Structures are given as structure tokens and as C-alpha cells.
Amino acid sequence: MTTIQRRTVLGALGGAGAAALAGCSPGSDQAPGGTATEAAVALPTYAPYQGVKPDLPASTAGVEAGFLRYPAEPVTGLTEKPGTGGPVVAMASNPGPIPPSADRNRYLQAMSEFLNVDLNLQLTTVADYTSKLSTVVAGGDLPDILQLYGIPRIPDLLEARFADLTEHVSGDAVNDYPFLANIPTDAWRTCVFNGRLYGLPIHRAAVGPIMYSRADLLEAKGLNGQPKDFAEFKQLCLDLTDARANRWACATPNGVKIFIQQMLGVASPDWSEDGGRLTHIAELEQTEQAIGLVAELWQAGVFHPDSLGGSVDVRALFVGDTTPLIYNNYTVWSGYAQQLRATDPEVRLAGMLPPGFDAGSTSCLWKGNPSYSTVAIKQGEPGRVAELLRIANVLAAPFGTTEYLQVKYGVEGVHYTMDGSEPTPTETGTLEATGVINYLGSPPAVLYDPGLPEVTEQQHAYQERAIPISKQTPVLGHHSPSQGSEGAQLSALLEDTQNEIFQGRKPITEWKATVDRWRKQGGDKIRTEYEESLARNR
What we know:
- By secondary structure, the chain is α/β, with parallel strands linked by helices.
- It has two domains: 6-27 and 207-367 and 470-536, Periplasmic binding protein-like II (D-Maltodextrin-Binding Protein, domain 2), CATH 3.40.190.10; 78-206 and 372-452, 3-Layer(aba) Sandwich (D-Maltodextrin-Binding Protein, domain 2).
- It has helices spanning 9-12, 16-22, 106-115, 126-139, 154-161, 166-169, 178-181, 185-188, 215-220, 230-240, 253-263, 285-299, 314-319, 333-343, 382-395, 402-409, 427-432, 453-466, 481-502, 510-536; strands at residues 66-67, 87-94, 118-125, 145-148, 192-193, 196-197, 200-203, 210-214, 271-274, 277-280, 325-328, 349-352, 365-366, 371-377, 416-419, 422-425, 447-448, 470-471.
- The strands form seven sheets. It has a five-stranded mixed sheet. Strands 11-8-12 form a three-stranded antiparallel sheet, sandwiched between helices. Strands 1-17 form a two-stranded parallel sheet.
- The chain is globular.
């Protein structure tokens, strides 16, 4: 069972929760990012791959391509193997159990042959990866390719230890690596440090965390799943709550706070900019208003009683009919849908857009981080760097190619079988191949739900409504050293006071005093560092 401790509740809300408190932006040291336009570096020219036609089109604004099934005839995008036969050491985190080592893993053996290298893949659990990465970096014996995130002083580290990729992939140079050229421009902004390109992005959807609803439960009660204002949303929460029946409207209060902030038009999870001056989200009147409204909802009993002050399996509450509303990352939509359908084929999931707070007001959504993390390449001779880029190019093979099947699924008949045109992992595939190389290279994200084409259609329709009202943080791709070193502690300071106000243990007036402490203890320093980076890019 997945339990979420009090300190990590915000992280369970898709990452935006912590960012909304401490300024942990998509451009901070807690995520990939540098100074995206400093020194006028030319970002890689975007050249969408034309070899595979989706069922539902992508858009330049960020709506993802949708596939209702895997293409019946996958195309082969490359004609030569990328490697030269020598050893390649790679290191990354792994979201699931660590798979068997190469001597007992047919997937890794097949990947060595497929890439024409002797692949030595070193995997560490997500929970332990930052510690392992720090140890490896300090030791000096760097892998050839590695996933980089979660450690401070990233710009200095990259410049000192890793390959400058600017001449290899900036502008039209990226055309030598057509699958890397297929990655949207915004994702590359997170890979620029000190005015140079020092990494490759792991692309993610433009749409950010959202409010999910159990559409089947709402319809059964005759309730509208898309309220027109805050008053209707509040009434929806009251109507869904029945403590005697073990049902509360919402899983966690912080997600509802963010949803209300979006109703009030707050345009970013961390900073807003006006003429080069930054204001943190904690300093906004709308944030104080949203906290006060959540406190009222807490008193009305619409939140699960264990959502603060303990641990709670929010996924189980949502899937198990206990809390019909949950705010979480967009990327969990498919997983929720699969799990719900396995329980009951009639169960349906929907994404709720934030309405304007009241008549005449305008709401917005927050865009997601366009890259999950950065892939860095060890310094070396130009020919060696080019070889490693060719390998990364293959790992970024687009959905619908034979290369994608090899990288994501493994060997047909061993790691997956075909159910019609759908690749279906075997038990061996689940053990040896699932997610193993996801964070060393990645194609653009697409919408694909095996066996559930209607879910893909629902997600695509949601994106078409959500993207036009979604906004990106102004500090995307900008660097604050203090955010990396002090951001977590500052997040905890704001989180603790917020939760006390939610539960009625502190008055709402305490919020301003806490924000003052946040500023003095490091918030103003972070602001200054971001403003200086913004000024350099004018």
C-alpha cells in the first residue's frame, strides 16, 4: 500500500503542491533547469517526426498526439546501429523494483546487441537515487551517460564535468539526431546552463496537475461534474460528503487549495512576474483567500479525516469510492483509469477544469514541467560524445517505431507478445524490461491507453480544453542556488502553518507572519537570484 506521510503530502499532489509553497519551480535545482536564453544560445530546431501518423493530432500549443491502438505496422526509423562496439556505462533511477543484472537479464543483453555496445546499466531506486548520484559525482568516476537531478550547484557541476552539447545539437545541428529533433522546444529550455546546452530532456506533457473526479459517482447522484464557480464547487463537495457512509468529497486539502487558487486566476505554482520583479505565490492575496476557504471546507467536513496529521493512501481512497475528488499529476490518468476499469467496467474518470471563482472572473491552469529530468553526457572527445548522442537518439525513438518497441518493451516473444497490434508485456518483460531505460532517453509524450481507446479520447479532449488556459512559470529554465539548498526547508515552513490554519489550530492572520519569516529565512534571497537571472536574459 502506498502511504503518504505528512511531510510528503504535497509531493503526492503531483509536485505542484510543494512548488506552490516553496518556489520549487520547474527551473529550480529540485527539477531540471538553467538559464534558458542566456547568451542567446540557439535551442535545437524542432523537427516533428513524420513517419508515424497519430489517430488524434498533436498541436504546437502542447496538446499531445493520441493513439487509439499501437500502429499495426510499426516503421523503422534508423538504418544503422549507434554504437561502435565498446563499453558504455549508464546510470539512472528506476521507478519500480531493480531488475536483474545483465548476466541474468535478456532485455539488457538484447539492448547491448541492439545498440552495438557493451552496456553496463547501473540502476538505483528513485528514493535512493539522489544519494547515489551525489556519491558518484563526489567520487569522480562518472558514467558515460546519467540522469541528473536533485543535487545543488548543477550549473557548476555540468560545466566542470560534463560535455557541452551546444555544437552537437543547437539549432539545425540536432538534425544529425532526428529523434532528438522530434523533442518539443520547451523541453530543451530546461537543459541550458550558463548559456550552453549541457543535457538532453526527458519530455513530459504540457498539461499540469488536475482535479480528477469519479464521473460515475457524480452522475449516480445527479451532480454536475463541471461546476460553474466556487459556490457550485463548494456545494458539490457538500453533496458528495456522507461520513456515515464512509465518503468524503476530497482526498487532500492542499489540492483543493491549488484548485481554488486557479479559480482565482493565480497563473503559476511559484512566481509571477511584472517588469522583471517577482512575487511569490505565498505572498498573493489569492493564496491567503484560498487557505481561508479550505479551512471553511475542512470545518464543513468534506475532507477525509486522515488527510492531515497522519498517513493516507490517497489512491486507494479515490479508487475505492471513498473520496470522489482528488488533485494529482496528469500522468496518473492512465493508471487510475486502468485500475478503475479492472474493478468495475462502468467506472469512469474525468478531469475537472477550474471554473472562474465567480461571475466575470477568469480561471487558469498551471503547465507542467516540460522535462522530468536532464540526461548528461560525460566529457570526452567529440567522436565519443557523438556516439553517446547517437545512443540517446535511439532511446528517444518515437511511439509507433520498431525502435520504440525494442527500447520500451524488449524482445517479442520473450518480453512481450502482440494482442492484435497491441504489445502486451509478459511476466519476464515486467521483471526485466518495464521502465528500465525510461530516464536515459525519452521520446515526446503521447496519449496511449492499451485496450482503452475511449480513455485516450477523453484525455485528448481534456487537453484541448486545458492547454488554452494553461500558463507556465516565468522562471522556467532559470537557476537559483538558494532554491536548491533551502527550498525544501522553506516549503516545510509554509506547509506547517498552512495545515494548522486548515484545521483551525491557527487563525488565518498567522499566514502573513509566516510569509514574513519565509522571506527573511531565504525567500527574498531566492527571489533576488531569479530576478538576476531574468535580468541577464533581457
